[in-house]
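Hi all, long-time lurker, first post. I run a small reading group and we've been trying to get comfortable going from sequence to structure in the token notation. Rather than ask abstract questions, I figured I'd post a concrete chain and ask someone more experienced to write out its structure so we can walk through it together at our next meeting. Sequence below, copied exactly:
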Amino acid sequence: MFFDNASSKIGILNTSICSMNIGDFIIMDSAYKQISKLFPQSQKVHFPTHERITRVGMKRQKEISANILCGTNCLNSSMLLHRQWNVDLYNAFFMKEVITLGVGWTNYQDKPGSYTSFLLRHILSKTHMHSVRDSYTEKLLKSAGITNIVNTACATMWDLTEDHCAQIVPKKSKDVIFTLTDYRKDYAKDLILIEALKKSYDDVYFWVQGSQDYEYFQSFGCLINGIKVIPANLSDFDYVLENVPSIDYVGTRLHAGIRALQKLRRSIIISVDNRAEEKRKDFNLHVIPRDLCVDEYVSIFNEEHDTNISLPLKSIELWKSQFE
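-- Answer (accepted) --
Happy to help. Here is the structure in token form:
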């Protein structure tokens, strides 16, 4: 049972702590906004997900009512070996129950193994509804024996309402800010993308979202001459989105694209993994394939396209209503 008052405490499993991917900060910004609306009076106690909760954290776990795990691709089919969410059976034994908010599955994988299924069944709440970011994650969690699930999309998308999206200009802007992905490198394909961007836009900005994005960007040599580099801070990305008069987002970083939509900028996301592709299928996010030629990119950039996000509003309200 959740109580929202000055003496209540909720654990926030914060995926941005110790993260070198600014996408996690975009997720947490939106997740924390939603949690603060649901529990305005409760104290929020933050715990890391990229490293294990240790002695002091375990002491704090005794004082909270439950944990909310905030987004990102923290689940996978072999959590004994791959710990995007760094939790094991020892941690799970001492932690209060976990309720998920917009969590996702890492890559397309086989069904979860016995260890992962046992761990998730033990640590995830059996009485509360869990929120996942797409139907693929819902399918994999159900195969682990967890059925109290609703597909709500990621919390970063919850404010992309019909009225909000109607304010996003469908025509190509004068300038563009783009991203690359350090752990999904494809030099030949990304070279074509950069060529197409320089051919299509007046000013081209590159935002460094991940820890090795800038080094990868530099590998393109003279092709990047004239491109303006934006540092690896969310505030710097926001500043460009909010202050450059006419700018689009294009790139392989999913949450950079969603952040652009939050800031009322036209966004074209290039699919490099299951996350963007599943959001395209479920919610009509504007996602395009990566294997295009320069002319195909240029043609897409010049097309008008309305932003029509299909939000699962009933599922979002169902997840929220359990805390009323």
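A couple of things your group might point at:
The chain has a mean pLDDT of 95.
DSSP finds 13 helices and twelve strands in the chain.
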